[in-house]
Amino acid sequence: MGFFTKDAVPAPGASGGLAPLSKERIKAALEREGWSYNVDSDGDIGGGWEYGSFFFFVNGEQDEMLCVRGFWRGRLEESDYLRALELCNTWNSEKIWPKVYVGRDDEGKGRLNAELNVDYEPGITDEQLSQHLRCAINTGMSFFELVNETFPEVWAQYRPAD
């Protein structure tokens, strides 16, 4: 049986067991998924997808918080700000995640962002980490696809060349 014995609990760091979150583990998870990424001069991990870029941060006093933050490729004019805000509010009221919001860049253009944060203080398995990354990126991309449909003229300016 062994369901409730110490022998049934995986050792920390063992295959399938809980291990501390780290940037190295994030990079390994991205590689397992076959996703390309870069590491900037600050040590931040990021990668580009069709509709936007995603960055993977480890935060918290004990590096226990995983934050996946996506940035839509497009930039909105001030005249589109309220419509973007309404789009984000509707998404946030209808969806569990990711949290989405409108920000501004250094030029004052509207930026649409998607973000998923989870506290992994007790540790995380490799499969949980991969699932978190897949969930954050796929749901973030779903939001960005909605943004593309809402602002097709803006998306036409920023979409990557085929």
TrEMBL record:
Name the record gives this protein: YbjN domain-containing protein
InterPro entries cross-referenced by the UniProt entry: Put_sensory_transdc_reg_YbjN (IPR019660)
